[in-house]
Amino acid sequence: MADTDPDELERRIARTRAELAHTVDAIADRVNPKRVAERTVADVKSRAGHLVASVGDALGVTPKPVDYADDPDRVWDDERPDLGPVLIGIGAVLVVGAAIVLWRRRRRLR
Fold it and tell me: What distance in Å separates the CA atoms of residue 21 and residue 26, rounded to the nearest whole number?
């Protein structure tokens, strides 16, 4: 270290400080509540889009792109999805679930 001049040491210290400041700023930005909320909202939107697409595929309905500026009453003007089978399936699941709960309660009371 005896052959290292003070100007070089100062440049190294300045470079290290700049790198450290950049790292601290990146960490602060990553844990910023506003940024965390923005990332969470973007993730939820992405997952919801994938869910809607897979449900649409299962029902045989092709979702059409909707602009947020569109009139919400006109979204399904071209074709309305047939929700009958979906509602029947949900009702059947609820009835079976209620039957299981009642059956278990009766079994415990005996």
Answer: 9
Residue pointed to by tokens 């990553």: 30
Residue 50, CA distances (Å) to 43, 53, 57, 99 in order: 11, 5, 10, 33
Across residues 33-57, what is the average pLDDT? Answer: 85
Please give the pLDDT value at position 73.
66
Cβ density class 24-58: b for 16+ within 10 Å, e for less: eeeeeeeeeeeeeeeeeeeeeeeeeeeeeeeeeee
Q: How far apart are CA 2 and CA 4, in angstroms?
A: 6
Predicted local confidence at residue 71, as pLDDT:
65
pTM comes to 0.40
